[in-house]
Amino acid sequence: MGPDEARGGEEGRGRDALPDRLATEILQHARHAGLGPGAHLREQALAEAFRVSRTPIRQALEMLAAQDLVERHRHRGFFLKALPAEPAGPAPGAAAAEVGEDPLYARIAEDHLDERLPARVTESELARRYGVTRSRLQRPLARLAREGLLERLPGQGWEFLPVLRSPEAYEQGYRFRALIEPAALMEAGYALAPETAAHLRARLRAVLDGGWKTWPRTEVQRAGAEFHEAIVAASGNPFLLESIRRVNRMRLLLERRISGATDRERLIRTNEDHLRILDMIEAGDREGASHVLRAHLWQELRVKRC
């Protein structure tokens, strides 16, 4: 079998696996967005969010329907039926490796941060640089695109988007969050789903109960980002959520490069702040939660300036 035939076979397997991966990511998307039973899962919106066509999205939704997690209404589309329980912490044994981390994604992201890659690249160029097939590139490229770091160009090209490389840009990201996140809490119709609140509380407790020490650094950071995105998602305003997600992705990409021991006191204080904000939201004190969230973000920025 020649190399072209082998590559063709691998790409075929990649296409077959796409709906299965999308099914998992659709559930994660629903969880982060605070969607509850009965929420309309619109094919076109999901296709745009994951930057794929509607066909694999429909296949993924049909797979979820077969698992009784989604139901299909004739002429109306797919609706969320239930979200499976998600473990509070990372998978067993994950402390030795990054949870869900793709080493190829990490290499591309690091090279982009260090400006070792041109602003525009083709898949063929990336495949030669990293010694992989073009099909192997699809998942890390799709993730970088979802995180707002990469954009597909007509044909086979991709363009990297600006990231928070400088301390000034990093600080601007925090200042932006301090404006947007507290405002999201005051949006009319704000509603944090009980199952989302319960999931966030379990994650925060797991960090405080030892996760800060045993989890990989990126997983602890991801838990914090998940909290902030879920708080904004409950506003029901997709523009606010998309803005915060993009800033968070760029922030986390930069913070993964920070070495050194985990600051126990800061992590405990941060997660205690998160729990306090969550308590206030559930008690109906959104204005108080908004003030605490703003103070929390400014405090985080002051600590990270040091």
Task: Fill in the keyword field for this structure.
single chain, 306 residues, mainly alpha, Arc Repressor Mutant, subunit A, Four Helix Bundle (Hemerythrin (Met), subunit A), 3 domains, three-stranded antiparallel β-sheet, 12 helices, 6 strands, disordered N terminus, GntR family transcriptional regulator, transcription regulation
Protein model, in words:
With 306 residues, the protein is mainly alpha-helical. It has 3 domains: 3-80, Winged helix-like DNA-binding domain superfamily/Winged helix DNA-binding domain (Arc Repressor Mutant, subunit A); 96-160, Arc Repressor Mutant, subunit A (Orthogonal Bundle); 167-305, GntR ligand-binding domain-like (Four Helix Bundle (Hemerythrin (Met), subunit A)), CATH 1.20.120. 64% of the residues lie in helices and 7% in strands. The chain is built from 12 helices and 6 strands. A hairpin with a 4-residue loop joins strand 5 (150-152) and strand 6. The radius of gyration is 20 Å and the shape is globular. The protein starts with a helix and ends with a helix.
Task: Provide the domain count.
Answer: 3
> CA-to-CA gap between the ends?
58 Å
Shape: globular
Question: What's the helix count?
Answer: 12
**Could you give a short account of the major beta sheet?**
3 strands, antiparallel
Strand order of the largest sheet: 1-3-2
| CATH fold assignment of the largest domain | Four Helix Bundle (Hemerythrin (Met), subunit A)
What is the β-strand count? 6
CATH class of the largest domain, anyone? Mainly Alpha
The helicity comes to 55-70%
Q: Mean of the pLDDT scores?
A: 79
Class of secondary structure makeup: mainly alpha
**Nearest-angstrom radius of gyration?**
20 Å
Which H/E pattern describes the elements? HEHHEEHEHHEEHHHHHH
Question: What low-confidence regions span 5 or more consecutive residues with pLDDT below 50?
Answer: 1-16, 87-100
The CATH homologous superfamily of the largest domain is termed GntR ligand-binding domain-like
InterPro entries: GntR_C, TF_FadR/GntR_C, Tscrpt_reg_HTH_GntR, WH-like_DNA-bd_sf, WH_DNA-bd_sf
Organism: Plastoroseomonas hellenica
Protein name: GntR family transcriptional regulator
Keywords: DNA-binding, Transcription, Transcription regulation
